[in-house]
Design a protein that fits this description.
Strand content: 25-35%
Largest sheet: 5 strands, antiparallel
Number of strands: 16
Strand order of the largest sheet: 1-4-3-2-14
Mean pLDDT: 77
Shape: elongated
Low-confidence stretches: 1-16, 24-32, 38-43, 45-56
Structural class: alpha+beta
Radius of gyration: 33 Å
Order of helices and strands: EEEEHEEEEEEEEEEHHHHHHEHHEHH
């Protein structure tokens, strides 16, 4: 367990890689400690009970500022070398592009190419009074064996420079899993366990035999998000294949489909289930369809292009609108909002209609009530 000392803006991932440093602390009980700094400068420290805030502050300062070893130093431009470590200094471009220095930027700027990739590397400048200046820029680019960075010192000029110092410090990578990195949000310390528990819950729900086969296809529809696409798509193929398999199973799938429809929240899942129930044509689906109609919003309809000929034929044969020659030629499929798909399913299944105003955005609940009254009388 580790305490987060400061919150910096980070992406809301549930886990991150961090560089682990061993640093000193002015504490008799904890003369040394480990801290972890992510690429976003998020700082973690071990939760020792005797570490007071001032000590944590010291750790943070040392983590961000202190590079204990100066490998090379000098004032000249050109080549530096110590052992296997090398650096080359030149004047950076003044183009104002990525990695370059803007034409109007003041101060002292250098571009450094170096081969130190197994340790943290930075450049500082020391003025004639012995004051250390940190670069106003950070970050580097390059390959696994050669990196390049631009160091900028806006308050310095070359005539005030005593020397550049090229500093390094060791680190090792540490991985934090199951941690929410969104500032102000509760940490998801058990994210991996929760994921495993959810997977176990789904596995138990799937069951065995034909029920498992049906529910596996329903699970595909539950998370499907078909888009306006004109390219082959794994998700599109999986969703339409699941719909076709449910239609092939037929009436045995109706109880599971209607149960899922009653729980469905996303509009597309409702539409796809209504599409399947319409294709199966079992009147037992009518009560669930009527109930879902009153909970659905009008969204119109949209088209997708299906490149698989067999899947395209299945969709065209069962879609709510009779396809024309052009639709079949280009495999243009229409998927409608739940209000349309459900009412069309009810009309086909029952042979009854409750009027043309079924597509009005405000009419879903009213039409649902009319359908319910008709169904109650029919029974």
């Amino acid at each position: 367990m580790r305490k987060r000392l400061k919150n910096f803006p980070l992406s809301p991932n549930c886990g991150t890689w961090a560089k682990k440093y061993s640093v000193s602390c002015q504490s008799s009980q904890n003369p040394r400690a480990e801290i972890f700094v992510t690429s976003g400068l998020e700082v973690f420290v071990p939760c020792f009970g005797d570490l007071i805030f001032s000590c944590l502050h010291d750790l943070l300062q040392e983590a961000q500022l202190a590079f204990r070893q100066t490998r090379m130093a000098g004032k000249h431009y050109g080549f530096y070398e110590k052992g296997k470590d090398t650096a080359h200094v030149r004047t950076p471009e003044r183009a104002g592009g990525p990695g370059s220095v803007g034409p109007d930027e003041k101060g002292l700027h250098i571009e450094v190419t170096y081969n130190i990739t197994d340790r943290d590397f930075r450049v500082v400048a020391v003025d004639n009074d012995g004051k250390v200046h940190l670069s106003s820029r950070s970050g580097s680019g390059g390959t696994a064996n050669l990196r390049r960075t631009t160091a900028s010192f806006p308050d310095l000029t070359y005539d005030r420079l005593q020397e550049f110092r090229f500093q390094v410090r060791p680190y090792e990578w540490a991985e934090f899993r199951g941690i929410s990195l969104r500032p102000g949000k509760e940490a998801l310390a058990l994210a991996e366990q929760q994921k495993a528990a959810k997977q176990k819950e789904i596995e138990e729900w799937l069951g065995q035999g034909q029920i498992r086969r049906i529910r596996q296809q329903i699970l595909v529809l539950r998370y499907s998000r078909l888009n306006h696409i004109n390219e082959p798509c794994v998700e599109q193929t999986e969703a339409i294949s699941a719909m076709r398999e449910l239609v092939e199973i037929g009436q045995a799938a109706v109880p599971e489909l209607t149960a899922e429809l009653q729980l469905a929240e996303h509009w597309l899942e409702k539409s796809l289930i209504a599409f399947v129930l319409r294709a199966i044509g079992d009147e037992r689906a009518a009560p669930a369809l009527i109930e879902a109609l009153g909970k659905s919003n009008y969204r119109g309809e949209y088209g997708i292009y299906v490149k698989d000929d067999e899947l395209a034929k299945f969709m065209l044969d069962h879609q709510h609108r009779t396809p024309d020659e052009s639709d079949r030629l280009f495999s243009a499929i229409i998927i409608a909002c739940p209000v349309i798909e459900i009412t069309k399913a009810l009309e086909k299944i029952t042979g009854h209609s409750e009027g043309p105003d079924r597509f009005s955005p405000e009419a879903a609940e009213a039409v649902k009530q009319r359908w319910q009254k008709w169904w109650d009388r029919k029974r």
